[in-house]
């Protein structure tokens, strides 16, 4: 039976695990658990191809327990029952449950007592943030460990091992690979070892021998490597991490970082998220400091949506640099949030009678609209009268910032009106 190179090269012990030394290195938590023979259920979460299954395999290889693999999305409760029966017979089974965030209530209810009595040691694997996607009942019975994308040097070392290993890898084949090609493969897969090994095997198996040697060049590797874009589930954890970093980079006025995160979303083809986030940023982070920048962002978004990729990247890049280097102010929406907080706290109060609707018969008898002064009847469009409910008199929600000329002018106007009101 054919097994892919990535499968064959899975670690048999913790010493063979590539990367993730914060978990499996000397003195680290998973290493200590294995050494002490005190395994407990855990959830490993992180990007694809970073070693979640490898760690589970290595844990099983470092113990005498049986090791079984299921998928929470596709395998049934009956499959779990088979594992549970085996655990009763053998004592303990290590169960790698892939896509553990997809575990439904029926399977979860069946699994919980077996986790509690220790018959099944669960190693859940997921690309999603378990604190968001996994039921608290499962979380409370597991330890949660995050795995990280592998470094370029980690992948380079693993590729070298695969090329040299004559038992499980490609060591029996007469393969030579250019240094630049190996470096490119380690770099372009962006921390995904599975993709790197799959590309290496495809290159080796699809390249004809010349004089008894398979020579892998940069051109061959480039053709074989699966394009590892920063694509992600739009409801997933990675998606929101990129969006968060994107907005915070613009808010922090760092155009280089903002363009980097923009590039990730462009590479993923996520035009909708980019456009929505830019519109939010234009008003949330720039706001009254530079309203013209927000207006330009709206135009850039309209142009991007009309153009589509790849040309959409041009107005998007323009908007990102514009917003990054613009003065920032969140004074308007934070003022609204303060007003909302008062309303939620029961401080709304009654609308003053002179502001209430008077466009019906009998309104005057109820004092609706009586005493209202029409500001346009006054020389500069302002007259001193009360607008807030009595319970909120002298409340000031809007606190202007002097980070842009436009809001500086608003601040000056506000000070003039407040001074006249006091007089």
From TrEMBL:
| Superkingdom of source | Bacteria
Q: Which GO terms describe its biological process?
A: DNA synthesis involved in DNA repair; DNA-templated DNA replication
**Tagged with keyword Heme:** no
Is this entry keyworded Magnesium? no
Q: Which residues form the signal peptide?
A: none
InterPro entries given in the database record: AAA+_ATPase, AAA_assoc_2, AAA_ATPase_RarA/MGS1/WRNIP1, ATPase_AAA_core, DNA_pol3_clamp-load_cplx_C, MgsA_C, P-loop_NTPase
Limits of the AAA+ ATPase domain: 38-150
Q: Tell me one GO molecular function of this protein.
A: DNA binding
- Pfam families reported for this sequence: AAA, AAA_assoc_2, MgsA_C
* Keyword annotations of the record: ATP-binding, Nucleotide-binding
Family from the record: Belongs to the AAA ATPase family. RarA/MGS1/WRNIP1 subfamily.
Q: What is this protein called?
A: Replication-associated recombination protein A
- Protein source organism: Enterococcus italicus (strain DSM 15952 / CCUG 50447 / LMG 22039 / TP 1.5)
């Amino acid at each position: 039976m054919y097994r892919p190179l990535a499968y064959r090269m899975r670690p048999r012990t913790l010493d063979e695990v590539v990367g993730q030394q914060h978990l499996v290195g000397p003195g680290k938590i998973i290493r200590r658990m294995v050494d002490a023979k005190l395994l407990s259920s855990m959830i490993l979460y992180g990007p694809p191809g970073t070693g979640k299954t490898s760690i589970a395999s290595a844990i099983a290889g470092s113990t005498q327990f049986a090791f079984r693999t299921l998928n929470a999305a596709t395998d049934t409760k009956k499959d779990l029952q088979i594992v549970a029966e085996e655990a009763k017979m053998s004592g303990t089974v290590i169960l790698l449950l892939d896509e553990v965030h997809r575990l439904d209530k029926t399977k979860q209810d069946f699994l919980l007592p077996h986790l509690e009595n220790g018959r099944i040691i669960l190693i859940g694997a997921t690309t999603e943030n378990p604190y968001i996607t996994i039921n608290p009942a499962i979380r409370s019975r597991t330890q949660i460990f995050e795995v990280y994308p592998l470094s370029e040097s980690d992948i380079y070392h693993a590729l070298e091992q695969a090329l040299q290993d004559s038992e499980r890898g490609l060591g029996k084949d007469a393969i030579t690979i250019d240094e630049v090609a190996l470096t490119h493969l380690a770099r372009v897969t962006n921390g995904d070892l599975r993709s790197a090994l799959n590309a290496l095997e495809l290159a080796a198996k699809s390249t004809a021998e010349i004089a008894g040697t398979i020579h892998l060049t940069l051109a061959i590797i480039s053709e074989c490597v699966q394009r590892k874009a920063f694509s992600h589930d739009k409801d997933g954890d990675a998606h929101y991490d990129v969006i968060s970093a994107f907005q915070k980079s613009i808010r922090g006025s760092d155009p280089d970082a903002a363009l980097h995160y923009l590039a990730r979303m462009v590479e993923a083809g996520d035009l909708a998220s980019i456009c929505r986030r830019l519109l939010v940023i234009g008003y949330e982070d720039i706001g009254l400091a530079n309203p013209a920048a927000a207006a330009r962002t709206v135009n850039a978004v309209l142009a991007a949506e009309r153009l589509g990729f790849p040309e959409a990247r041009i107005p998007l890049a323009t908007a990102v640099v514009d917003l990054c280097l613009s003065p920032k102010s969140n004074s308007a929406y934070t003022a609204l949030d303060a007003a909302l907080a008062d309303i939620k706290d029961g401080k709304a109060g009654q609308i003053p009678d002179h502001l209430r609707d008077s466009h019906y018969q009998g309104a005057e008898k109820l004092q609706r609209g009586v005493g209202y002064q029409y500001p346009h009847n006054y020389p500069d469009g302002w007259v001193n009268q009360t607008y807030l409910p009595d319970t909120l008199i002298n409340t000031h929600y809007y606190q202007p910032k002097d980070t842009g000329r436009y809001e500086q002018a608003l601040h000056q106007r506000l000070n003039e009106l407040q001074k006249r009101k006091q007089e």
